[in-house]
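$ ./design --mode recover --in tokens.txt
reading tokens...
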């Protein structure tokens, strides 16, 4: 059976966000952490959607040219292929270029491509091509967002997504604006755009439903954007009777101990670290320069501290920062994430943990890659954009491990303890 949908995630946190949307929509899905061979695919015969988790948001355009075509091919034949970006769309011409990924996808799958970034389920909104994102009780234009405007690697300095992409690609970008969608003129606006790629506004689920219906009706093969793409398709599939509503999901059981590994410098994560310490979690701050120099002694120090605390039945947080680092901090999310992942791997193999939380996009992508996991499947809801997932791995210590992969902005102050309790 041809999958309804396939996606490549530009980081691991966003990749599990898509798993959540598919699970809520009643679409059995699997997220591969390596290009799947036939034997691995055969372990998930009921999957109607497949994903491949990647780390392209921290990579160069040259890396994308070398690796993305094969990654798209590894997804196999699907009705639509989605290049999944963060809902904050942060990217730059030299790092995580969404424009370059768009060019590669268009070459392989043909034009036109849809660009859907609005994800109201995550409080991300696109109106008249401008992106807005919430933090706490407030919503900000993305170039004025207190965190994303100052991201250490890919700060968002432009809210108009067409202008933002113009710095990354020469591909003409058309636009379907909000007022035309609300007036029932989405088809006419799409035809009038007449461009190789078309950006769709979206503020509410009704806007996504209209977009999803157009994607199905026009047979588009390629899309770029947040899990708003997935949500639009799920709504359209359900409206067309292609998938049925699933039963309400069961909550996950609590665990007695939780390991948290954080490379995030988000204020939201900083508040979570502080709250966890107040809740009795033990915590240790990593010597980041030592990790970036590849000093195994620092990795051993962090792992030993975590293992001892977990043996004493305490939950534990290993973290690299407590909030923003400032513009002078080195952009080294890939190396830091890999080092923290090696720490986590040491702890998992000595402490026999049932559940681990990774915080931060680069930490999740490069950290989880150190664990030897073949695939992830959705397990239970925890927080929008950060579900509980279950690992499939050859290593019996890792096989069945439960993980939550959280972007820096996700969750209230008590998020760590909610993950430990199961939601």
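writing sequence...
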């Amino acid at each position: 059976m041809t999958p309804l949908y396939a996606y490549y995630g530009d980081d691991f946190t966003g990749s599990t966000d898509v798993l959540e949307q598919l699970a809520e929509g009643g679409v059995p899905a699997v997220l591969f952490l390596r290009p799947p061979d036939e034997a691995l695919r055969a372990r998930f015969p009921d999957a109607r959607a497949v994903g491949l988790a990647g780390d392209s948001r921290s990579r160069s355009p040259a890396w994308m040219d070398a690796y993305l075509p094969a990654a798209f091919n590894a997804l196999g034949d699907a009705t639509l292929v989605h290049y999944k970006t963060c809902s904050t769309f942060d990217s730059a011409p030299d790092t995580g270029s969404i424009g370059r990924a768009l060019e590669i996808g268009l070459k392989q799958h043909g034009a036109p491509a849809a660009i859907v970034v609005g994800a109201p389920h995550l409080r991300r909104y696109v109106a008249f091509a401008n992106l807005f994102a919430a933090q706490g009780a407030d919503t900000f234009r993305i170039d004025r967002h207190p965190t994303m405007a100052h991201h250490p690697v890919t700060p968002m300095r432009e809210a108009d997504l067409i202008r933002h992409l113009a710095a990354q690609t020469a591909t003409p970008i058309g636009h379907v604006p909000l007022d035309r969608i609300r007036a029932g003129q989405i088809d006419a606006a799409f035809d009038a755009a007449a461009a190789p790629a078309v950006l769709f506004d979206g503020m509410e689920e009704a806007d996504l439903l209209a977009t999803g219906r157009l994607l199905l009706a026009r047979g588009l093969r390629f899309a770029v954007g947040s899990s708003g793409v997935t949500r639009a398709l799920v709504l359209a599939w359900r409206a067309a009777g292609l998938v049925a509503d699933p039963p309400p999901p069961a909550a996950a059981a609590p665990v007695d101990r939780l390991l948290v590994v954080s490379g995030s410098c988000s204020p939201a994560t900083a508040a979570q670290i502080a709250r966890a310490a107040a809740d009795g979690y033990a915590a240790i701050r990593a010597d980041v320069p030592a990790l970036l120099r590849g000093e195994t002694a620092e990795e051993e120090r962090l792992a030993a501290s975590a293992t001892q605390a977990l043996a004493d039945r305490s939950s534990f947080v290993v973290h690299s920062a407590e909030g923003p680092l400032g513009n002078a901090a080195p952009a080294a999310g890939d190396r830091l994430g890999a080092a923290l992942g090696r720490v986590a791997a040491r702890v998992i193999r000595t402490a026999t943990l049932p559940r681990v939380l990774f915080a931060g996009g680069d930490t999740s992508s490069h950290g989880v890659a150190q664990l030897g996991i073949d695939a992830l499947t959705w397990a239970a809801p925890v927080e929008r954009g950060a579900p509980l997932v279950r690992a499939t791995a050859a290593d019996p210590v890792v096989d069945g491990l439960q993980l939550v992969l959280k972007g820096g902005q996700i969750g209230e102050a008590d998020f760590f303890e909610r993950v430990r309790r199961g939601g």
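exit 0
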